[in-house]
Amino acid sequence: MRPDDLQSLTQPGSVSVRGDLVLVNVLTPDVTANAYRGGLHRVALDGGGTRRWTWAERDLAPRISPDGRWVAFLRVTERGKPPQLHVMPSDGGEARALTDFELGAGVPVWAPDSRRLAFTSRVPEPGRYGAPLVAGGEAPTPDAEAPRHITRLDYRVDDVGFTTDRHARLFTVDALDPDAEPVELTDGTFSALDPAWTADGEAVLFLAERDLGAAETFHNDLYRVTAAGGAPELVVPAPGAAMLPVALPDGGVLFYSPEHAPGTAAIARNVSLWRFDGEGLTRLTDVETVDCEKAAGAPVVTDAGVLVAVRNRGAVELRRVPLDADNAVLADLELLAGEQAEVKSFAADGDRIVAVVTTSDNTGEVELVGGGTLTDFGSTVPLRPSVELTGTAPDGYPVHGWVVLPEGEGPHPVLLAVHGGPFMYHGWGFFDEAQVYAAAGYAVVLPNPRGSAGYGQAHGQAVIGGFGTVDVDDILTVLDVALERPELDAGRVGVMGGSYGGFMTSWLAAHHGERFRAAWSERAVNAWDSFSGSSDIGWFFTDAYCGPGLEAQRAMSPLTYAEKISLPFMVVHSEHDWRCPLEQAQRMFVALRRNGVEAEMLVFPGEGHELTRSGKPRHRAQRFAHVLDWWARHLS
């Protein structure tokens, strides 16, 4: 895979099933147009392949109504505009827009009557984000907006922006009435998240910060508001930052949540599946061994149990949890899909279960669980499989990772690529960066050191208060295991990574620079002292991981050791990154240049922290070109 192959990638996303209708949205980067394109595809249950079902600029998040007659989805009708909620008959026809909001609409949820939809939308204050100051007036340009009066620490989020002047509000709409207007159920004084209808269709459940966001908090609680309107009612005080509720027929509720004490953040904590039966809470899954992956979707209730996606040693597996479970460990949960793969989304209708699954050398296929592959959206570009690596760290701890090998006998130059997080993971799924570098002739080593997710909660928490200790040991051990292979050139090794991976790149360059020819540090945390006050999460993240003392924070900051870095060093950042702000890159770049290091800096305008995953396609392609040029200069 070459950088210009980016626009050849076809990646399936969210899937929905009802009867014999299976719909999945498909996404393809268009580098020339600098946009993402893709429609809904219908997948044949008999294995007959797939056909394009909608043809707009971009359609996503299909949701088939309970009676199977209608499909609601989000549509981008014009490049640069936010997605709006649409509906169309499931047997085909014209789609009809249900919303026209300045900031677009969120993913829809059908009511049991197959008529009403619930969704959220960020509604701006008058005079902001395209909303006029007065009805019928013109909206001021961004530079003419009034100043923001900020009184909270949680006032912005990376890749979203400022939030307290555009809280997410809860809406319902009659999808079958052409003249119906969306009905607002919350007033915008707090953000309503993750709506779900009650089983009787009389009310909508949603999540909001504790006490409806009266003050900064790390807990999301479950609330209820009747479909006819009224004041929200607290249903469940959650054990942590609750997510994605699902109503049960008996009036109970399922939801995901880590568990943490009030006033503390959910740092490196596994996400459990919880059940509220109207009286009390039960944790259905074991806190140490089961970590639910909310990115794959909400839990799905079937007659045989609850379907959840679980992070496990680089895989995202579809598992079944009994409704009467109590702290069930991973080994006791039936594995349905995703073994040595990643489940990206899943859905069920009765006992029919479909899932979107990806592997290192396949961008995604739709599987009928128990019935094999229905269709394969795999790229026409040749992709390389990953090879599993295992070993033992100096303290006896088992380590795990992968290497993606290029074609040929070698010896191949090596790129050590460290993931972000740190409570994230490299995995068995498709990773475009590894494929691009392998196609260019590099062996790509992908470690999951202590601090990563998917290996138990204790594994994830092992680096709290100890960045640059056992995580370094694990990373270098995985690298050494890879370098035992004769086709890898131990004399030509580069190190790279983003976010926590960028932090680790800077750290390794300072403390183990003799092992590498050059470094590529991207969207990194380099100095915890300034990160605390400049990052959207810095006000709690720094203390939670490093501790509140400045001495400890500086001891764990790569910038403290910048004078030890001598190898060629590329600093890469996005101009609008609010997770790891640009000053983190600038401080490191200036320190290195003043020390006489061969340092360069690459800054992407208009991008946030997620550039490599969801940034503008043209910037993603340009970044790949710069990466390959850098390593061609230093690992040739």
Polypeptide structure, described:
The relative contact order is 0.08. The model has no long low-confidence stretch (mean pLDDT 96). Among the domains are: 11-136 and 155-187, Peptidase/esterase 'gauge' domain (Methylamine Dehydrogenase, Chain H, 7 Propeller), CATH 2.130.10; 386-635, Alpha/Beta hydrolase fold, catalytic domain (Rossmann fold, 3-Layer(aba) Sandwich). β10 (109-110) and β11 (116-122) form a beta hairpin. It has 636 residues and is α+β, with helices and mostly antiparallel strands. It is globular.
Short descriptors:
single chain, 636 residues, alpha+beta, Methylamine Dehydrogenase, Chain H, Rossmann fold, 8-stranded mixed β-sheet, 5-stranded antiparallel β-sheet, 11 helices
**Radius of gyration from the alpha-carbon trace, in angstroms:** 24 Å
Q: Please tell me the CATH architecture of the domain at 386-635 by its name.
A: 3-Layer(aba) Sandwich
Q: What's the N-to-C terminus distance?
A: 19 Å
Shape: globular
CATH topology-level fold name of the domain at 386-635? Rossmann fold
The description of the largest β-sheet is: 8 strands, mixed
Helix count, DSSP H or I runs of 4 or more residues? 11
CATH superfamily grouping of the domain at 386-635: Alpha/Beta hydrolase fold, catalytic domain
Portion of residues in helices?
10-25%
Short description:
The protein is α+β, with helices and mostly antiparallel strands and 636 residues long. The protein contains eleven helices and 39 strands.
